[in-house]
Amino acid sequence: MDRGAYRSSFPPITGVGDLEVLEQVPFAERLDAGSTYDLLHRSADRHGERPALSFVAMDADASGDPCAIAATWRYADLIADVTRAANLFKSYGLTQRDSVGIVLPHLPEGHLALWGAEACGLACLVNPLLDDADIARLLRTAQVRVLVTLAPAAGFDLWPRMARIAADLPGLKAILRVDPLAHAGRTRRLKARAAGLPARLTAKPPKGVRCEDFRRALARMPGDALRVPRHVRPNTAAALTHTAGNTGTPKLIRQSHGNQRYMAWAMAGVAQLADTDVVLSGLPLSHNGAALTMGLAPFSVGAHVIMTGAHGFRSPGVLAGFWGLVERHRATAFAAVPPVFDALLNTPSDAADASSLRVALCTAGALSPETFKRFEDRTGLAVLEGFGLAEAGGASAFNPLHGPRRIGSAGLRLPYQSLRIVAAETDGGPAEDVAPGRVGRLLVHGPNVCLDARAPGGPTAVDDDGWLDTGDLARLDDDGYLWLVGRADDRIHRDGRAVDPAAVEAALAAHDAVAGAAVVARPDRRAGAVPSAFVTLKPGAWVDALALLEHARARLDDPAAHPVAVEILDRLPSTASGRLHKAPLRLRATEHAVRDALNRRTIEAEVTARLTGAGLAVTVVPKLARDVAEARLALGQWPVAVTVIAPDDAAAAPPARR
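That's the Fatty-acyl-CoA synthase sequence above. Prediction below.
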């Protein structure tokens, strides 16, 4: 049976000319219509006895080898268990419009649940590292009918959290629990059983909701065929993923089967994956980099995916033992976020043979030029940086594996996608393209643009011709390479001048002691906003904030770009997927600005900034009631909304959620 096999291979790309040759064949002839289930079935037909998915627990098993594989699914096993999962979900009355909520750490059962849910309905992937309030909101919005999450286990706190959340999910029919210790080393399992479960982990599921062990429930289902075959079109919804939340609260994005199959095809081509590849997967499955780039893409060509630890790259021992993992399993590729690359540079690798590795993909942010050069020089690997966003399947551009890799660039557009740079300010008129090399707003078009982005009134702006406004500022050079400048809403407007935070960050990062830098807008009564900087220092380095201010100002020609403050932090905040998270820094900078304004009038007060649907809002509670009127006068003309509350009124009010 033809299950949508790819009609042609993806040849190496060295430049825009190769993309244009590739695109002479219409995309519809590159990839037949079909579902992600069809894609997995095709791989099982071709590679049935080859390993598809393995899990390394990264805790010593009976043999004392932390790198030993704890479980493996051949392609025949993988499609059988995915089929069982789909049939299991169907047995609970799941329809094609219903969703399965999947809130799991980095376990192989996540793949079984994900592709099984897509075979019969919708998969809703949620990162367990999100706040409980965000998890609950996403699951309610998705209207989940079945929830797949962790069983109670020592060392994991997810079950009591999910039991509380599940109690407020209307329409929930079943909870399927995954034992996180099923693949752990024997020593760890024995210790966990001997210790028993703390009382806080024994929360009960909601009344009326069926609760089962996921693996046992799968075992009673047929794995040879779907009980109710599903016929899909490219635009049929497959999954509900969510944004990282780095520009606000996480929001759900509907991906179609066509979106996901395209991304699998495109990313397999970017990394030139083949059935001989061994891919290390350490990103959260809710991240497109894990589900598609390091999941469906290698599955589509018959490669072997090895999942590293129950918490991925965050698992104890994974980064320290990474090079040993590479040597043990002859890994050839991996994808990671920038902090992982930084950590690996500080991990000894001389004793391990990592010569099998050939490519590393950097997702969810750019490496510093220093890290990029050091990593390639030390490992001999080709590091590919790119650009993507959740509304566009996670990838729209990547540096070519076999062409020039330009440090700091996001690379060339992916095949059958188009990029435009348009004037950042349109005055309400139609967007006009800017000349090559000029900075403007980045628009994306292609088969990666997700369903919700295309829908009228969707969460992201798409025009009538299908162009997605990413909200990013960027430029395209004469060779078609994409260079990101920053977020359009990150620009700081100081006295009518637009300041690019990236330029200020680069100036600070040039200091020998600085490991990372982030610059945000700090509200200012006279200028509207001014740059405020936050930095982290390299291990063992020290410099004071005043020296960093002088260092940045000496390297910035425009006085409007001069930061007014630098604060040294232990670490910069990041989202659950590892991206730099500027929202908490904006809140912190705002609170500092308000406190400074009050201190000038010798007013002591509790200051809390928060994000609301209307933007930044600040609540001020003076310590003394007599200072309320003075505080209101001091903050009356501020560029953000400030509410001053008397101490007695604040004591009676519920705390505001930050």
